[in-house]
Design a protein that fits this description.
Helix content: 25-40%
Number of helices: 4
Distance between the termini: 22 Å
CATH topology: Beta-Lactamase
Strand content: 25-35%
Number of strands: 6
CATH superfamily: GAF domain
CATH architecture: 2-Layer Sandwich
Largest sheet: 6 strands, antiparallel
Radius of gyration: 15 Å
Shape: globular
Bound molecules: methionine sulfoxide
Oligomer: single chain
């Protein structure tokens, strides 16, 4: 339950920590069907579980502009409101429909700097149960090269269990 969520008690090993937080997220969400509630809970619990996550949140596909992302639930400093498919790391992940890991944001052409402290970033696509892209999860860190394949696998597992059930 949310009341007993204790990030300090999570495993140190990254893959194990993702498995533990995936279980905590599933327990908190239960059968809650609202996608915004799910996104808000995932961003809050991931940000609490991983102290190096500087910005953790969702951009969702705008139903009225299917090639544009609009900001969704997030934890962190003020995020930019809209990102076109193909622009920045978020737009690249949405256009390619695949996870993008950026070890150094200054080396990524077209990176959108919402928080100047961000040094590295991972963005994973979010699909519903039909395989339709509904948005992306964006995580930024103030550390260079903060994210690797363990983060990609951990985040993808959480996104699948949380959003591919609509
Ligand atoms: N850096 C992202 C923009 C979103 S913010 O980091 C919150 C990008 O290049 O898509």
């Amino acid at each position: 339950m949310a009341e007993s969520f204790d990030a300090a008690g999570l495993p140190v090993d990254k893959a194990a920590r993702y498995r533990a937080i995936a279980g905590e997220i599933a327990a908190v969400l239960g059968d809650e069907p609202d996608r915004t509630a799910r996104m808000a809970t995932v961003s809050a619990m991931l940000a609490a579980a991983f102290p190096k996550f500087l910005w953790t949140g969702f951009y969702v596909v705008d139903p009225s502009k299917p090639d544009e992302l609009v900001i969704g639930p997030y934890q962190g400093s003020l995020g930019c409101l809209r990102i076109a498919f193909g622009r920045g790391v978020c737009g690249a992940a949405a256009a390619r429909r695949e996870t993008v890991i950026v070890p150094d944001v200054e080396a990524f052409p077209g990176h959108i700097a919402c928080d100047s402290r961000s040094r590295s970033e991972i963005v994973a696509p979010v699909f519903d149960a039909e395989g339709t892209l509904v948005g992306v999860l964006d995580v930024d860190s103030a550390e260079l090269a903060a994210f690797d394949f363990a983060d990609a696998a951990g985040l993808q597992t959480i996104l699948k269990q949380t959003f591919a059930r609509d």
